[in-house]
Amino acid sequence: MKTIILGIESSCDDTSAAIINNRKILANVTANQAVHRNFGGVVPELASRAHQQSIIPVVDQALHIAKIQKKDISATAFTAGPGLLGSLLVGSSFSKAFALALNIPLVEVDHMHAHILVHFIETEGKKQFPEFPFLCLTVSGGHTQIVLVKSHYDFEVIGQTIDDAAGEAFDKAAKIMGLPYPGGPLIDKYAKKGNPKRFSFPHPKIPGLDYSFRGLKTSILYFLRDNLKKEPTYIKNNKHDLCASIQHAIVEILMKKLRKASAKTKIKQIAIAGGVSANSNLRKALYEEQKKLGWQVFIPPFEYCTDNAAMIAIAGYYKYLKKDFVSQDITPYTRYR
Prior knowledge:
By secondary structure, the protein is of the alpha/beta class.
């Protein structure tokens, strides 16, 4: 039996639509918003306006690529939160209207849960999927969490950042260095030619499995400020080593708590998700731990790391199987529930 879900993602600055048939993605279309590069970060008002312009063309293209007609769709799933309220309203309003017009169920999806469930998308050649329970490190510009995943529907956050997210630390460090937005991928790029142990940055001493990145950002700011006073071209002359050292510090902070979580729960099924899961150094560190500690590591394909509607569609698929639908009076939420 075919279950075809239209997934809509609009939590931040990417407008995305995907079509899934059971667990196989038929189309995954994303419209990016280049306008934010001029401001060094996402401007919420501009983001919501761009979503309004892109939502219909993106859905139309997804239907065309998937060779699916609207009448074939079983349900519409959309990102309910967390995210930017204006952006979420565009996606939720479209999804409500679409579901109402076709008289099909409406499914709300939590953005962070969707990042995790992307591991259950069937792709060509993929033979292994995480077994429950498993741990998932979800790392993005807005969130950093260690999640104990007990089923497709049961998630428990056992560790999270108490202030800033790892992705934000990457982007803020890049901004301090004068790199264009988004800076995280550029740090990863330049780090490949640098020495990760040339510069040392402090690790926060936070109890339990929680994270903190605010102190690290401050230490990077003061370190660069002090050295720029002595040498105005300091960043330019040491760019690769700085990027490598900053990236090494962030990844080590992430991995230390993940190792601790694995030891505490005795779970060796380890996954990562979110935008920062595309970072090459984080992926390398996970594979190294797989050899040392006997972990079974699950890393999503690059196209499913950053915000995309495929993850909303797979999450919507599992909720559809459970008949977990919502009414037209559902409202988006900005913070993680």
